[in-house]
Amino acid sequence: AVHADRLRAAEATGALAVKLIGSPLTPDKIVNQKSVENALRVLLAIGGSTNAIIHLTAIAGRAGIPVSLKRLNELSDTTPVLVNLKPVGNGYMEDLFAAGGMGALMREIKDLLHLDVMTVTGETLGERLAGDAGNFVDRTIIAERKSPLEPQGGLVALFGNLSPQGAILNRSAADSNLFEREGRAVVFPSLEDLAARVDDPALDVTADDFLVLQNAGPHSVSAMPEAGYLPIPKKLATKGVKDMVRISDARMSGTAFGTIVLHVTPDAASGGLLGLVKNGDRIKLSVKNRSIDLLVDETELKKRAAGAKPAREEPQRGYAKLYAQEILGADQGCDFAFLKPR
User: Fold this and answer.
1) To 5 degrees, how large is the angle CA 163–CA 168–CA 172?
2) pLDDT tens digits for 260-274?
3) What percent of the chain has a predicted confidence (pLDDT) above 70?
C-alpha cells in the first residue's frame, strides 16, 4: 500500500481515463464472454479469493454476461495454481508484484487465455503480453506450468439440494481429508447466536460435525458480511482441532483458510433449504462430485417449510426497502436487479 508504484499507477490511470473520453473503446468492447473467462482463469491460477467470484459476476452481469458456476468448475479442472501466496502458499501480494506480476503469470498460462480480447490500452491481450516478454520471473513465487503448486484451480462450485444454484469452496485453502464426508449439522440460526454459543463449553459438537450458519446471506438482515470463516469451537480448538467442515450463505476474506462452504444459494432468508437445516440433520459433502446435500426426506422438508417463519420483516421505506426488493443472490453477483441490462 505504501509503494511508490501505487502513485505512478494512479497517475497513469487518470491520464488514460481522460484519453478515453470520446473514444470508441467503451466498456462493452472490453467486458465480454472471453475476457470474463480470462479473468476466471487468472483467478484460479492465483488461487484467488472466493469474493472475486461475486465481484466478477456482478461486473459481467452489468454487461449482460452470465457467469456459469458449472463453467467455473470446467475451468478450475484445467487451470493449475501457479502463485505461491497465502492462503495457498507462503507469499504476499507484494511478492507477486516483485516476482513479475500479472504479466508473468498470464504469459505462463497464455495457451489457456483468449489472446484476441481488447484491453483498456487499445491493444489486444496477446499484444500486451508479447510486449512484456523476457522480463524477470521469480520462480519461488510464480511457478512454471510444468511444476505447479497444484494441478487444478483453487475454487470449485458445489451443487445439490442444499445449494441448487451453487455454493463456493476454496479447495486450495482446505483440508483435502475433509472433502468426502458425511456429518451431523450443528446449527447457528444467526450471527448473534454464533457469537453467543460457539465457545460455550456445553455446546454439543465434535470435530466430525458440520457447523452450519444460517441467515447471513444477501437477503438477510446481516446482508452477507465476511462472516463465513466460522471459528472452531473453543472446546475443540483447545484439543488441537485446526479444521472442520463449515457451511453458510455468508462470505469470507480471501486470506482465510479451511474447509468452508460459502455463498450457499438460494440463501436461508430467501427461502433456501439452508434455512430448514436443524441440529442433528445429516449433510453429505463430496468435492469430487461437486455436491453438497441435506439428507432429510422430502416429506419432512415440506413440513418444515410450511411451519417456517419469515427470516426478516420486510422494510417499509427508504434504502432498506429498495435493497430488499432488488438484491440478487450470490450466483448473480449480489447486485441490484435494476442495474442489470434489460
Assistant:
1) 145
2) 999 999 999 999 999
3) 99
- Average pLDDT score over the chain: 94
Q: What span, in angstroms and rounded, lies between the C-alpha atoms of 128 and 140?
A: 24
State the pTM of this model.
0.93
Strand order across the 180-188 sheet: 155-158, 167-170, 260-262, 246-248, 210-213, 180-188, 282-286, 291-294
Location of C-alpha cell 497464455 = 110
H or E element in which residue 15 lies: helix 4-19
Q: How far is CA 204 from CA 166, 235, 239, 280, in A?
A: 29, 10, 15, 10
Q: Which residues pair with 185 in a beta bridge?
A: 210
The C-alpha atoms of residue 125 and residue 194 are separated, in whole angstroms, by 46
Neighbours of 118 (CB within 10 A): 17
- The verdict on whether 68 is a catalytic residue reads no
212: helix, coil or strand? strand
* Annotated catalytic residue, options 35, 68, 253, 291: 253
The number of C-alpha atoms within 13 Å of 116 and in the hemisphere containing its C-beta is 2
Identify each DSSP E strand in the chain by its residue range.
155-158, 167-170, 180-188, 210-213, 246-248, 260-262, 282-286, 291-294
Taking a C-beta distance cutoff of 8 angstroms, is the pair 218, 329 a contact? yes
- Under DSSP, the state recorded for 327 is B
